[in-house]
Automatic annotation (TrEMBL), chains A, B:
CDD domains hit by this protein: HTH_ARSR
Keyword terms, alphabetized: DNA-binding, Transcription, Transcription regulation
Organism: Kitasatospora cineracea
The protein's name in its UniProt record: ArsR family transcriptional regulator
Database matches in PROSITE patterns: HTH_ARSR_2
Lineage top rank: taxon: Bacteria
Domain HTH arsR-type: 13-106
Cited PANTHER family: TRANSCRIPTIONAL REGULATOR, ARSR FAMILY, TRANSCRIPTIONAL REGULATORY PROTEIN
Pfam families (UniProt xref): HTH_20
Length: 110, 110
């Protein structure tokens, strides 16, 4: 099965200046992806299988890809684990205040 | 053709308290819909055919529906025209600062 090697291909990360607002809004418009972002807001780095979301691994991979390509998260490999971080500083540089307002709005809205 | 009467059925508008953040983010994640929202931010009320967007009428109807059901806009009929307004006060009440940050981010990002 080529799956693992495919998943581990070098992922694409947009440069901070190329982060697109509409991609960010789209990435945040899904409850699983919003939960991932909120979780990373509270905890700087997490292993990929440890997020409090109830979806199949392939679905989670898809959500990570959407978040990654929108510029919201970054992965790094450490030993056998893939760790995920929020690109909070990059997002703040690109769109000041956006992430704070959106995550506060989500917390208020629930 | 039943099209006109179908389009003129009483549209659904969520109450302010029921406006859902993920629906709002999704609605704003499209360039045509973002343009409609930005245009209404500058000008309080516009007739539906007068937005600076280059899409077919049926596509525009779809975008209005997404914006309406997300709680971003409201229509009212006046004579033969359907006028559209941004629900700016409702959005500010529900998610303080959100619309301002998002529209500023979009203006910066372009």
């Amino acid at each position: 099965m080529p799956r693992t090697s495919r998943r581990r291909e070098a992922p694409h990360y947009p440069d901070t200046a190329d982060i697109d607002l509409l991609d960010v809004l789209h990435a945040l418009s899904d409850p699983t992806r919003m939960t991932i972002v909120l979780t990373l807001g509270r905890e700087p780095e997490r292993a990929c299988g440890t997020f409090p979301v109830d979806v199949a691994p392939s679905t989670l991979s898809h959500h990570f890809k959407v978040l990654r390509e929108a510029g919201l998260i970054r992965h790094r490999e450490e030993a056998n684990r893939r760790l995920t971080t929020l690109r909070a500083a990059d997002l703040e540089e690109r769109f000041p205040g956006l992430l704070a307002v959106v995550t506060a709005a989500y917390a208020n809205g629930e």
